[in-house]
Amino acid sequence: MDNKKILLGIFLVFIVLFSSNMAFAEDVSDDIFHQDNIIAISENDNIQTSSQQTISAGSNSTTIQNTINSMSDGDTLNFEQGTYTDICIYVDKSITINGNGATIIGYSSPGDNNNNIAEKVRATTADGGYAVSNFATLYLLNAENIKLNGLKIVGIDTSTYSNAALYVSQAKGVEIDNNIIEGSSWGIYMTSSPDGTVSNNMIKDQTTTGFLNFGSARTLITNNTVVNAKNHGIDVRHGTGPNVQVINNTVIGSKEGIYLMHSKGHTATQNTLINCSISSITCYGSSEVNIYDNTMYKSRIGVLLGGGYSDITIGENKFQLDNLPFPPTFVYYVATAQSDYQSATDDIGVYTDSSLSEDTYSNVTNIPTPKDIDVNYDVILSPTGNIYNVSADASSTDIQGIIDSMADGDTLNFAENAVYEDICIYTDKNIKIIGNNATLIGYNELNSANIPEKVRNQSSSNGYAVAYYAVLYTLNNTGVVVSDLNIISKFPGYNTATVGTTTNEYKTAGIYADASTKLTVTGCDIEGASFGIFMQYSGDSIITNNNIHDQYTNGMINFGSPRNIIANNTITNVVNHGIDVRHGTGPNVIVFNNTINGAKEGIYLMHSKGHMVYNNTIMNAKIASITAYGSGEEYIFNNNMIGSRIGLLLGGGYYNVTIGENQYALDFLPFPPTFVTYIAFADTKYQSSENVQGTYSDGAYLPPATIIAEDLTSNSTKVSYDVILKDNNGIEVANETLSIELNGETFTAVTDEKGTASIESILPNGNYTVVVNFAGNDKLGKKTEQATITVDSPNAVDLKAPEIEMYYKNGTRFVVSLTANGTGINNETVIINLNGVNNTRKTDENGTASIAINLNAGEYDVVVYYDGSDKYDPAVVNSKVTVLSTIEGKDITKVFRNGTQYYATFTDGQGNPLANGTTVKFNINGVMYYRQVNENGTARLNINLDQGTYIITATHPDNGEMASNTITVLPKITENSDLVKYYRNDSQYVVKIIGDDGNPVGANETVTFNINGVMYERKTNASGYAKLNINLQPGDYIITAMYGGCNVANNITVKPVLNATNISMTYRDGTQFKATLVDGQGNPFANQNVTFNINGVFYNRETDSQGTAKLNINLMAGEYIITSMYNDSAISNKITITA
């Protein structure tokens, strides 16, 4: 070979090598498949296994984070026991975290500029971060199948709303088990993380919510305990997170125990909700939810439905709600808040319980103007009759003796600012009691001997038979005045779990009035007891200007006391009701201008009528600001309701309750929001544990159907079973589909004209539970019933088909046996249905039959039938065949030409590795590769393919089994896209460079760009982005980005900013030459100078509002070239002029 040929060969090789760097990835795929020097087996066949890392006690946040950053998917992180403080760490790998009882405590604040939070957590996605704005102690982010257990996580010590102890985002399949989550605004904030499991955790002391499941579909939430989460115990929400199961959790002490919002398909069952102040379970804007078999203990509302709910099915639950004995406070098994009424003005109208009338609403209010109320305190408080002064050292007996000596119209005058202890006194005379700021302190025990004898004696013994303990009684009199007294009741409180009508602790009061008409109580401070003021049958009275506080039950109760005025009182820190007005003998009470802070229900109107409630301020009511229960002909207007979740609650047979304009500042929370309820309804027809069952939609209710499913005993294994479907009136329902679950199989059957649906099944002797489900229709709600089927046949056979597990084609057979009383039955036909094929076999003398298994790897259901005979009943049995593959490989995802390779392990028919050196075959895109296994039966194939998705098939050399996996090769260059830009605007061509670890490379990596044959090198920034300014002339270009052997190409279109068209004209006909100018965004560019060159003469013209520059053409006939110029942009056109 001469030198010229050698030089030519070298030159051609150089051209090939150079041009290969310029080619697109897809152009070289065939070359890669056929060049064995590109795909080669490495000498090192070891497969990397997962590793364990241990965090030493006392490690700081940085040390822990560095350890996590060094880990790989599949690794395990172990904490040593101990307490770790000032921690803020994140995990974005598929690892297992074993807490081993360690405690991690968050920072006391997120720091200046949030610098206590890892930069990658808070950085924007454009800068390679996760853009999380919530503060947390531990973040689980953007990785699948993270496992967390045995760790105590204490939230950041700050009152900021947006903090969490544990924050989880984009973590599919996460498992959070057996941890303690303490403090913070949210205990666990889990967003966009489907298919996770949150189980066996203790979550406590959150200022907002224990566990928030936001848009995380199919989460299993089970066996958790949530204690003292202020707002919601468990909160499941957002339309992207359907089908969540909330099972067997305990929630204690939240406003709403379980809160299901703006999502669907959830199940809440077997949960225990305790002391949830508003409701045990709330559904707000949710749909297709099943609520059953829960225990709701000591909430006032069982289930609250609001905000556009639909298809909420409430089954059988156990209700032990927050009722109180006589005088009773009733409970609400279900309350509904229809969306039609949910604004400060939409709730204006007149309402009646749907159980009483079909006309439930009118928007005509006609509220009468309240009459002026004039109370002449000068007259009321002026002493009358004889004045009896009480010395500062008087005892209860001394004071009672003075009262007993007084006559109607006299005045009892206490020593100014005196303090009297162990007081229990009464008056049954028409006297005035002037307190002069004296303090009466009651007994601190419940001893009837301390009560005056006449108060406690029965009427037959000339007594008043009062069963209540009080500091001051006013009984059977008229016109009594009690003013300017401080009354302190020291009676012990009661146990809410055991309180009853005979519980003495429940029956205590500061002032107790009975049959004391025209009573005035004014200017008093009343502290403690179950009731501050308890007045019954004491009409035409005035209760004003009192400070009533710290009662175990109600601030004051107005029982059967008509026409009373309750005004200008301040009532704080009472447990149940602030002001309670009730009983049919007490109509027309006026309640105005009172301030109530901190009751369950601020103002409570019950079983009475004609009241006016206006100008009151109700703050921080735990359930509702104002409740009307079984009351009617009432007017509620001009009240200010602040801080309650529910404004108005109407229940228990309310009628003609008029709601006027009120002011609301209800208990709303920002994103993720907790919405408020302006008005809720608890209609009578739902208020029992049985009647509440049914399916609810906003503005509609479907009563549950009735299913008659009776127990059955059969003397044959061939069982026919009938069920009957009826509506709530007992009428049979035809043409409806029932789902019947029996012995692990689900049947569907349609009811006939008699409402009967029938199924047949073959069952061995034994007892079976049959479950019958009706999904509901437009008239009937869902219903489920169950019964027992007992099969006791003397002709039953024993058909057995044991499950088998085998390796591919290793000769194992599937065997069935048919016996009666332990003896094989010969020459009987059995049918083995396997993989959709019926295989008929005869039993041998031992009652056995078998078939060979030549199926591909997988699990197969098997059904074996025996049709029976004259002597024997039929039988059927289900089984399973599991065929194990003799080839084990996994899908891989790798970055272009990084160190990740494909491995497959080969075994023989008994699961043992193939012998070292055995040759196996791989097929990629029709190209075969042969490799040898190592001592573990593993063969490796290096993958140096271009970016794309490939199928690799491995073939077993002995049994011919083939197994396939998917190989995904990710490019090193991403986020590249075609670019369309205007000439010299700010748009750039940008690519993101990915390193071998799949993460963006850091700064100063060199990227080469080729455009029009010119090479440009640019450096990446800290986030892995490389950018190229495009300053080309208008036109279409192809740009190729190159890094680490990976090439990508895109189109670049540069649009001109100047545009004009050729013109043809006659001499001086007035035609103008027009050039249009746009800015860098394509918008008309006004007030800019455009230069025209024609015949070597330059003209400057300014663009108008449309971006057009115009030049008058007065040239002689001929053809001319005109050039338009702006900055560095120039275009040319032709002008043709005829004479």
Note the main attributes of this structure.
single chain; 1139 residues; mainly beta; 9 domains; disordered N terminus; Pectin_lyase_fold/virulence
Q: Write the CATH architecture name of the largest domain.
A: 3 Solenoid
DSSP strand content? over 45%
Fill in the CATH topology of the largest domain: Pectate Lyase C-like
Give the total of domains. Answer: 9
Number of β-strand runs: 105
CATH classification class of the largest domain: Mainly Beta
Radius of gyration: 42 Å
What's the gist of this structure?
This protein is mainly beta and 1139 residues long.
Structure overview:
This protein is mostly beta strands and 1139 residues long. The chain has nine domains: 3-34; 59-180, no CATH class; 208-322, no CATH class; 385-575, 3 Solenoid (Pectate Lyase C-like); 706-791, Sandwich (Immunoglobulin-like), CATH 2.60.40; 798-884, Immunoglobulin-like (Sandwich), CATH 2.60.40; 887-970, Immunoglobulins (Immunoglobulin-like, Sandwich), CATH 2.60.40; 973-1055, Sandwich (Immunoglobulin-like); and more. The protein has seven helices and 105 strands. Strand 80 (858-866) and strand 81 form a beta hairpin. The two termini are 74 Å apart. Residues 507-641 form the Right handed beta helix domain. Residues 121-236, 242-320 form the Periplasmic copper-binding protein NosD beta helix domain.
